[in-house]
Amino acid sequence: MSEAKRDILSRLKKKYDAIGQDVDTHLEGLLHSTPITYWDYIQTDVLLNLQVRRSEQPDEMTFIIYHQINELLFKMVLWEIEQISSHQDLTTEFFSSRLQRISRYFDMLSSSFTIMREGMEVEQYLKFRNTLTPASGFQSAQYRLIEFASTELINLIDNRFRETIDRNTPFEHAYEHLYWQAAGKNYATGDKTTLLRLFQERYMEDFIVFMKKYNKSNLASIFKSLPAEGRMNLDLQNAMRHYDHTVNVRWVMTHYLTAEKYLESSGEPAEATGGSNWKDYMHPRHQRRIFFPDLWTPDELNNWGISNLEDHKILDQPIAT
User: Fold this and answer.
1) What is the C-alpha separation between 7 and 71, in angstroms, rounded?
2) pTM for the model
């Protein structure tokens, strides 16, 4: 037996001894296992049977598959954020490289929205969209998790209530004042639309747990905890600005312009499927959602979602934090 094979067997024995298992049993099991195939590993048959239309309109298939792709990319984003959050010896290089991965996922999401904007017939969309009520892309739980894991909670609070909320505020109270609550809540009466009520019934408890988990381990808080040298790292600051701008301006605006095309195609104002005032809810100048406000200049903050920040997102010199 070659030295390389002996080394492999030795390491296998150590691995299984560490968990109280007999390595010979596991090796014998290989004799009876079947070879892995691409379709089994990727679960292709399962994946391709997850698309169920609610109408007879062919373009509804495009709509469903595209949103499922979005959710898979959201899962990839959360996977990368978890690696940053749980890293024991975090370096600026690791932080920056993972942020760049995350940004590439959102770059893909933003650029791919032409599939939605140009890839469906307006007439078909206006027919099948009514079968979706009151469901809405607003109800993507993973997207909300990405927000919680990216920034400090105060940055997700509706602008009208930020002065009344701090770190001592109960999470349940903060939850009720998140910016996206305005899409379906009457703050004068407390009444919520079916869209928001169903979303809360399904996910509120999970959201509260997740908010607590990432309260001090979100990307913004981790950045603030770095040594001064790390916070002044130009590559890291640019990676964070790129991510912030891509998620909160480019991605939102591509979504906004797509909704505008379909919902205003008849010339009459239309509600989103969930019943929200989609223009006020979706446009970044109204949301004022910024993950890393300390990394933008006063002028950039004042023009958030109004002017094109694309020309300003790459820094030549780091911003003091």
Assistant:
1) 42
2) 0.89
In the chain the domains, ranked by start, together with CATH numbers, are 3-33 (no CATH), 61-312 (1.20.58)
Q: Give the residue among 292, 308, 168, 311 at the shortest CA–CA distance from 240.
A: 292
152-207 confidence digits (pLDDT tens): 999 999 988 999 998 889 999 999 999 999 888 888 888 999 999 999 999 999 99
User: What is d(CA 8, CA 161) in angstroms, rounded to the nearest whole number?
Assistant: 60
146 touches 77 (CB < 8 A): yes
- Residue 43's region, left for phi above 0, alpha for psi from -120 to 50, else beta, is left
Residues in the chain: 321
Q: Which amino acid is at 320?
A: A
Residue type, 304: W
Tokens linked to 296:
């933008």
Query: Residue 55 in contact with residue 182, Cβ under 8 Å?
Result: no
User: What's the Cα-to-Cα distance from 280 to each of 40, 66, 68, 285, rounded to whole Å?
Assistant: 45, 24, 26, 9
pLDDT digits (tens, 9 = 90+) for 238-249: 999 999 999 999
- Can you tell me the distance from the alpha carbon of 243 to that of 127, in angstroms, rounded to the nearest whole number? 35
